[in-house]
């Protein structure tokens, strides 16, 4: 009887036969001393026997189901491909930037690869990467617009978590002429009532009052309603009220805070442009012209003219690439199903003029409205990606930065650190870009306020890592600006002080539409047809990327290290009564100032003592200056920082990035944790 096989069956048998015919890996020890090329061309792996700890006969299902996605590093791309051809598997990504390939393999094929000595190849699991907004640990959101009626005020909450959020404390303030609070309702259920109480314009409800009804189930919305004993609430503005809620799950939200014009669809409310002084630079012709910024994110709403055109109404998107599909995209066809990439790019480069109180202004809504753009889509609709796709996006930048004149790349995404900074593949790619003089700006992450929450790639000591502050809804009063509670904090596991600086990141108006994933989930954040409010270190990094574009227009000769030096030396540290309001592990060198950064002439004050080429080659790695004393408190080696002046310049010996030779005993010491009692409170005020 003649056996008949269909195409799939023939391929399967061929795969099994190729495995059984492989030269034998009798022992991985027998491969020591050989390089990868020698192993691939000469190693005898004909028997898959117990010496490898593998089944005697390959399991058919394990060949069909290539369920393992991994990165393999260790040699030339050609040799790595030959290895996979010999062992079996599917090559999905070519990543010369990190000397590796992405592959899909079966359990059996993975087991064979894992038996190769670690001196020959390095295998990394294709872990998830997220936009920084997707990593916000709180995930309880509230509308920025309040409903004011005769004697009531209402505000909406939404729990975006897959678990219940329980309110532990609520605090309300209001104009005393409205009398006292008569009642507080949470989703129509009474949590407070008083007929004769005198609160003098402030009321706090504790966990005992809230525990029965003030709970939000997973993905549930709620309305908080406060009624007063006197009428006239509708004669006030929402800025005259405040409502704050703290949740047992470790997050808090300011309820009724917002600009009184916030609901005005005619106003742009891009306060961050004024906050950092970019409006002054716009008026002087510094708009990011001729500087190209690449944004690796969820794509772009390229059909929006404020993104596709500059202030002269000329096309300014140089290229569009889909790293998920590995395809060049026609610029007009680039889309953004999530909204994150559109929002960040709008902060960087929105070319529409600002509108305040219904009046068009001379400056623009984006920090660098004339910057050219390269759009790289690397994140799916829900805000997630993978190491391999993020690396493919970074590879595109490396391959095209000279042809497209890419000077800046914005990375508003992250992942938890799983290794030392130099051993992480994304970090290796980012370091390689920095070595090529591409300025890399990355968000610190939204997983604070605990220490050591700086993620990948923000934990790379060379790049510019950005935390987030808010103007506390008082644009004209810089003295009450606050650090956002979720902004990730340092030091890193290798003792570097991060973030490098902070920038506006709270309640940021930028572009999006209601059909995108995030706005569709939170419609209360939409203003008009094309603007959406988001908060995060993602937005703060967008602000700094825009500032870098302004700096490079003013002086195109700046190196990446020069840019970092001038940015950090021109920041303003938050102080209260001559002492730091926040530690350097929270605020870095201080809040960014676009005017001072552009006007700065500083050089030689960033990344001193470190050799990035040696770091990449593995010849030398570094640790930062953070240390912990016998009481468990953090300090900076060799320097006391009780008072730092606004224009303080680091002494060479105490640079945050000063290179201390790596001490193996210091590596990933779990005891190197922040003493919570040592951490400054987040309600201090920023002062110029």
From TrEMBL:
Q: Does the keyword Protease apply?
A: yes
SUPFAM superfamilies from the entry?
Subtilisin-like
Q: Which residues form the signal peptide?
A: 1-26
Task: List, for all copies, the residue spans of the domain called Peptidase S8/S53.
Answer: 288-577
What InterPro entries does this protein's entry cite? Peptidase_S8/S53_dom, Peptidase_S8/S53_dom_sf, Peptidase_S8_Asp-AS, Peptidase_S8_subtilisin-like, Peptidase_S8_subtilisin-rel
Keywords annotated in UniProt: Hydrolase, Protease, Serine protease, Signal
**What family is this protein classified in?**
Belongs to the peptidase S8 family.
The protein depicted here goes by the name Peptidase S8/S53 family protein
* Native species: Paraglaciecola agarilytica NO2
